[in-house]
Amino acid sequence: MSKKTRNVLVTGTAGFIGFHLAQLLTKRGFNVLGYDAMTDYTDVALKERRHQMLAQHANFRCVTDRLEDMDALSQAFDGFEPDVVVHLAAQAGVRYSLEQPRAYIESNIVGTFNVIECARKHKVDHLLMASTSSVYGSNTEMPFSEQQKCDTPLSIYAATKMAGESLGHSHAHLWNLPTTMFRFFTVYGPWGRPDMAMFKFTKGILEGTPIDIYNHGDMYRDFTYVEDLVEGIYHLIGAIPPGPEEIDARSALPENDSISPVAPFRVVNIGTSTKVRLIDYIEAIEAELGIQANRNYMGMQPGDVPATWADASLLESLTGQLPTTPIETGVKNFVAWYLDYHDIAPMK
Fold first, then answer.
1. pTM for the full model?
2. Fewer Cβ atoms within 10 Å of its own Cβ: the N or the C terminal residue of the chain?
């Protein structure tokens, strides 16, 4: 990353991934402005704890407001003058989008448009925005690569994230705004959201309540440990996508690059390039807790997909690294955090 990049505005810093990224950036000496609405979709107390930890860093401050409030967002940009923007805030979750689709339109489309507009007006060096592996929708060719078409989303959540990618590309083309979209693959780890599978599985196993296992456990995910993921984001900040006029020959780029032919815009998968069976994931949690789960096998949830698996070779080409934390280590770290956070004595 360029040494001149000092001010990084991160949306969603009270959230799971935003918290970890802000922590990494502040520890490495960058000034971080967090922007978060502190919505009650997930536990507000957990969000407050994350921000309390970030507030211990002198180079972190935050604004509490909604992305849909353009005036408030513009004021935050004006007062901070960011060099880089990392947009992570979103209404997350496939299943919740079945119940509250309008929340996804407002946050993930209107809110994202406002972030892009502010980044354009302030001529930031690089805008980076979170997408999701869910945009691959009904695609069956795996591992998923950035060159695949993504025109068959299976959930409102996926559709809104794909819309964010389209908005990002059009702005990059029209206004020469360097933009990187990253597609996350099943992120997990300490300080995770209560609606995420690992959190719900761990809670259910400890309480002895049934845990819902969709598609009868015949599912695969590319589980990505959160610290590996934010390290990848950190290195991508400095991998600014060039515009068409800056490239003398396509051979100057990675062979597998997703760079747009008409804009300084690229999409990057952040995953491990390894798929793990859902049952193996659950068994790793059981082994760490020393308790057998009460399993409730169910059919496929509407909007869900049976497998996700990333081709992360472009990430490796651009950053020189891939996520490496084994699932056993990641599960161990999450369980240790969960027990400590909830003041539960270890079972084993």
1. 0.94
2. C
